[in-house]
Automatic annotation (TrEMBL):
GO process annotations (BP): methylation
Catalytic activity: L-glutamyl-[protein] + S-adenosyl-L-methionine = [protein]-L-glutamate 5-O-methyl ester + S-adenosyl-L-homocysteine
Binding site for S-adenosyl-L-methionine: 92, 94, 98, 129, 154, 212-213, 230-231
Enzyme Commission number(s) of this protein: 2.1.1.80
Name the UniProt record assigns to this protein: Chemotaxis protein methyltransferase
Species, as recorded: Mangrovibacter plantisponsor
NCBIfam families associated with the record: PRK10611.1
Statement: the UniProt record of this protein carries the keyword Protease: no
Record bears the keyword S-adenosyl-L-methionine: yes
InterPro entries reported in the protein's UniProt record: Bact_Chemotaxis_MeTrfase, Chemotaxis_MeTrfase_CheR, CheR_C, CheR_MeTrfase, CheR_N, CheR_N_sf, SAM-dependent_MTases_sf
Pfam families, A to Z: CheR, CheR_N
GO MF terms, alphabetically ordered: protein-glutamate O-methyltransferase activity
């Protein structure tokens, strides 16, 4: 049994934080490593965030020095700690039907396409976005087997684990209609009061997998009618953005759509896409 912390004394985590120092050299190494592994660019103002998140990893591993932790990573390029390192430093801000203007465009596009409508959600996070996509497609295309499919990916294994479970607080679903809430979710009872779970009938249309957008080739079941890559490019530098967009090109079907985040502008960094709506892009080769 763990003895309680004496009154007036800081917790072990705070005590460790007080002992540790994140030097300029260590911060630069962290920035280099996360850029090499995940393409994420960390600015100086992210230093406190980096410190607070990695202190937890050092505590879990029983380490008391950032240099020892970084040395451990660099000594073994295949250690599972790399995934924990990436998970710690990725940002996952999402919501159901976030940037809602995209979903009517998606619905209209899907209704006009023939065959199986396939879509890739390239930054799935904890699942709110791919489930919003699935709800939109189920509303307009129905739930006939083989009519549509969502492939959802992220680099962070922890958020994907939550996404697969499909359990959320009821107050997170305020953007859904009462009909959608009833049709696609089950309400928790008893100790699960206030929680909802995605119905299996909807979840069956979504496949979750880990994908690193820095990979030279994506293990994804393309080509797709649409790709959602929203609010993730902002963490990459221009060269990385260009490389990723170039790899998207063969993964989009003719007249396919690429959805971007509200603060992202792909027209300035790639001639292979043209802006055809509010943060919605098409392939330039399809433009007539």
């Amino acid at each position: 049994m763990t003895s309680p912390v004496p009154k007036g004394q800081p917790s072990p985590l705070i005590q460790m934080a007080q002992r540790l120092t994140l030097s300029d050299a260590h911060f630069r190494r962290i920035c280099q490593l996360i850029y090499q592994r995940a393409g994420i660019v960390l600015a100086e103002h992210k230093r406190d965030m980096v410190y607070n998140r990695l202190v937890r990893r050092l505590r879990d591993l029983g380490l008391d020095d950032f240099g020892r932790y970084l040395g451990m990573l660099e000594a073994d390029q295949n250690t599972s700690e790399w995934q924990a390192f990436i998970n710690s430093l990725t940002t996952n801000l999402t919501a159901f039907f976030r940037e809602g203007h995209h979903f009517p465009i998606l619905a209209d596009h899907a209704k006009k396409r023939t065959g199986e409508y396939r879509i890739w959600c390239a930054a799935a996070s904890t699942g709110e976005e791919p489930y919003s996509i699935a709800i939109t497609l189920a509303d307009v295309l129905g739930q006939t087997p083989g009519r549509w499919k969502v492939f959802a990916s992220d680099i962070d294994t922890e958020v994907l684990q939550k996404a697969r479970k499909g359990i959320y607080r009821l107050d997170e679903l305020k953007t859904l209609s009462p009909q959608q809430l009833q049709r696609y979710f089950m309400r928790g009872t008893g100790p699960h009061q206030g929680l909802v779970r995605v119905r299996q009938e909807l979840a069956n249309y979504i496949e979750f997998n880990v994908v690193n957008l820095l990979d030279k080739q994506y293990q994804v079941p393309g080509p797709f009618d649409a790709i959602f890559c929203r609010n993730v490019m902002i963490y990459f530098d221009k060269n990385t953005q260009q490389d990723i967009l170039h790899r998207f090109v063969p993964l989009l079907k003719p007249q396919g759509l690429l959805f971007a985040g509200h603060s992202e502008n792909f027209s300035n960094i790639s001639r292979e896409f043209w802006l055809r709506g509010q943060t919605v892009y098409g392939l330039s080769k399809d433009k007539v």
